[in-house]
Model the fold of this input.
Amino acid sequence: MLSMPRRVALPTNQPDDAEDPANQHGPDALARLRRELARGTAELAVLSVLTSGRRYGYELLKLLERTGAGVLEVKEGTLYPLLHRLEDAGQIAATWEVEGRARPRKYYDITPAGRAHLAVLRAEWTELVNAMHRLLDALDKVEK
Amino acid sequence: MLSMPRRVALPTNQPDDAEDPANQHGPDALARLRRELARGTAELAVLSVLTSGRRYGYELLKLLERTGAGVLEVKEGTLYPLLHRLEDAGQIAATWEVEGRARPRKYYDITPAGRAHLAVLRAEWTELVNAMHRLLDALDKVEK
DNA sequence: GCACATACCTTGTTACGCAAGGTATGCGGT
DNA sequence: ACCGCATACCTTGCGTAACAAGGTATGTGC
Done:
């Protein structure tokens, strides 16, 4: 314990309370915060949307952007690699459609494997939400 | 469109449905899935716990490990850097306590700035959960 | 002495999400 | 014809949080 302070109950970092709350919630900080919170939910969101029917990539982009005030929004750099990953894993199937269209589109369908995976994801998400709910709303009930 | 398939509505990846569901949910895959889903929630969880009273690092580790069947578990490599980040940001205060103990412990208290930040985090988390809830339970009601 | 628990620290790796860049075509206006 | 914008898809480098794994140190029981 050579590097340990010898003084008793001395705060190691005095926060400046009057300034930090204001500076921390500008547009950039809020965007980062949202990003981090929503991280990991893209897969669940995409598979969920696909259960109600096939969609092409750009359509998924637009749809997720509009869902829930944008909290589920993902960017192309996220969505397309994710779609490719899901396809490689056999959870979705992709088909190019060219006939009867002015331009081709790549449609995605969820597979039975994808539906099975989604069921697991849903269960895990529910657990997470319930656990967090317990923390946020009933902290004194958490066992020690 | 030189690289575009010329055939119509041809699946680009034929999944093997009988095998994928079984192989994807072994212990490692489930652990990865949980990790990704919970990603970004550590900060919310830690600040929430601290609102009901000061705690030292190891205690937080154990407590989160036990909460909700382990879905909120974080490892040291995650927790301590997070605690340091929160301290640097003025959201928590850290104090070493050595007197009257067999060994020193580093206690963490949430600051007023931390409480303000937590309120924002909670609001964003609630939005995310509601949005996802809408996707999962009422897909046909999502606007096109 | 040793093994394990308690308590904290740190770094390199992993993996996802974003920014930014790219390709291509269609459409409307000039 | 050109241009700007929309539609549609692709990809890579960067940033960041989480983990694995390594480390320090002390206390306890055998």
Q: What stands out?
A: Residues 56 and 70 of chain B are 19 Å apart (CA to CA). Chain B touches chain A through 80 residues (CB under 8 Å). Chain B has a mean pLDDT of 78.
